[in-house]
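This part of the workshop introduces the protein records we will be handling. An example says more than a description, so a record of this kind follows:
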Amino acid sequence: MSFGRNPLHHRRRTTLLAAAAAFAVAVPLTASGPALADANFPSPNGNTNIASIVTYDDVIAELDRLERTSNFGLDVMTLAEVGTEVSTSEQGRDLHVATVGDGPEAVWLQGRIHGNEPYGTESLLAVLKELGTNGSHDWNLLRETYTFHVVPMYNPDGSELNIRQTILQDGSGTRIDLNRDWGAGKFVAAESEAFYEYWTMVDPVFAIDIHHQGLKRQAGTGDEVTLSLGISLAPGGPTLPTIEGGAYDVLTRQMHVHVFDELAKYGNINMDRYQVGGSLEIDIKGGVVSAMMLGFDYKGLNPEGHSNPAVFFETSGNSSDGSLGQKARGKSIRQNVLAMQELLLGMATGEVQQEDAARWEEIPHAPVTGYQTDDGVIPASF
């Protein structure tokens, strides 16, 4: 597998670095958000104003605008138009995907699989804008190397309800965490079946998933964390080293080492490794990007066992807990956009594949005591 490596290209970063802050904070889709301030990131005071968070209708309107104003063939489709067997959410909303680029390898970008984690949507729309309109060397390189498949709002029902899950419409009222619904005995929700089938059509070479987490402080320093770098099957853990001869175990660490180094050059981004329960590495198999790495075959739709490496980003705060903080809105979006830009360009140029995977241990984290799996905790000495 090439994982998008293209060593013949050389990066010109001047236009990227100069423009990144400008467009990443200029993406509000509804009424203008408050100006950036020096307050806490995000606010711990429970003052989230969800009226300014983009809605399903806002997303449809913005996707339409991006398609109409694109200079580089950005296409917006519903899954009904794509032709998946299931194509709407549990509550009957159309599920949307945008594609752009002419490259031979597909890349999957998704956000807001949890409805109360909104800035993945805005971050992906910001990246789509650049892919559709920016004619600089870097963005041309990305379009020439990859074809992007972007899901800005995976969970429209939960987004409208400002809850993490979707709600089954079978009369039970059961809430389903869509990020635990790919796997054996799963695919309970309509959204899971729909996007899984689309994934089998796309066969991406890698994927990025944008999330939020609770408020967090860095182990050792106590500094507020703004962005955590995550891999849903823990490097060196019980699962990832067994996949593709360990290739994903290496590459996913290289991906985050690269992001960590590049984002450290920007101010006001404080990163660590994503952990749960204080000192546990996540190793869940039911997550969407976990199932991608495992090459899960559901209903015979993936008989060849296609798989792809994947990583995720977690910005601090979420809307339903009231911990998001509007003063950090632009900053939250900006750090996600920068992380995606740097990772995508690093993959396209081959810089990522040259990173030292062992430096994953240098990214701040608590001492690892075990692995949080779908079935409980496995000690680190497994």
